[in-house]
Amino acid sequence: MKNPYLLLAILSLTSGFTTFAYADDSQAAYVNAMAASQCTKISDDKKRLSCFDKAFAKADKNNGEHVPSPLEKSAVDEFGARHLKEQNEDKVDEIRLIVEKVELNARKRQIFYFTNGQVWENKKSTKLRIKAGDTAVVTEGSFSAYYLAKENFRGRVRVKRIK
Question: What are the boundaries of the signal sequence (predicted)?
Answer without folding.
Answer: 1-23
